[in-house]
Design a protein that fits this description.
mainly beta; Porin; 11-stranded mixed beta barrel; 11 strands; about 10% helix; globular; signal; Bact_OM_Channel_sf; DUF2490; DUF2490 domain-containing protein
Length: about 230
């Protein structure tokens, strides 16, 4: 199993190098600190760094705060706020504020864990400091995933797809994209786990779509002052 997973991600990595000759290759690094803040109220804070242009230039950094609560055994609802600074445009740096509401559904069948997340979000860049800062960017996104959990396995693999649909402004209304992903997750200790993901992001419904291949490395930490979920 270890050899199979190692081979898969090695091939994915070198495939990215090949793709990078015609498509962009990015690397993302994130940390997630999460747990139960109060009874039935989950909290997480997630800083992240993104590097693009074949992982040679800083694209953005961001930090996101999430609050969610379980409505049913199979349903969670929540709110999120993200502050993001983007550097990919040499003419200006964008400071983006995002507010989102989401619902997460979960279902178990044997050793498989199915999940679906629906989210609607509103973004504004450079609020009150530019003409575009008064225009809200609104989109909804949908993520479907499945994870295989087996105590005998070295790690937990998962895969899925996410779709992004722009609602406003009008000039971006048909600018949509999808993101395929494959992930392996490994518990390092009771409170720390690590993830490695390969993601392929592609615009659709537009001419000359942007395509990005992404390797994401993440650490999840559950501190003592937050109850482990």
């Amino acid at each position: 199993m270890k050899r199979l997973l190692f081979t898969f991600f090695t091939l994915s990595f070198f495939a990215n190098i090949v793709y990078a000759q015609q498509e962009d290759f990015s690397s993302w690094y994130n940390l997630s600190v999460n747990g139960e803040l109060f009874k039935k109220l989950d909290f997480s804070i997630e800083p992240e760094l993104r590097i693009f242009e074949n992982s040679s230039q800083l694209e953005s950094w961001q930090i996101q705060f999430n609050l969610s609560t379980k409505v049913k055994k199979w349903l969670d609802v929540g709110l999120a706020y993200r502050y993001q600074v983007e550097y990919d445009d040499p003419r200006k740096n964008e400071r983006i504020h995002r507010i989102a509401g989401f619902s997460k559904f979960g279902y178990k069948t044997g050793k498989l864990r199915w999940s679906y997340r629906a989210q609607i979000q509103s973004e504004q860049a450079n609020i009150n400091s530019s003409e575009d800062g008064y225009v809200k960017h609104i989109e909804h996104r949908h993520k479907i995933g499945v994870k295989y959990r087996n105590k005998k396995w070295f790690c937990e693999p998962s895969a899925g797809i996410e779709y992004f649909f722009c609602l406003a402004p009008t000039k971006d209304k048909n600018r949509w994209k999808n993101r395929l992903f494959v992930t392996i997750e490994k518990d390092i200790s009771k409170r720390i786990s690590g993830t490695i993901s390969y993601k392929r992001q592609e615009e659709f419904n537009v001419a000359n779509p942007d395509i990005t291949n992404i390797i994401q490395v993440g650490i999840e930490y559950k501190p003592k002052w937050l109850k482990i979920k």
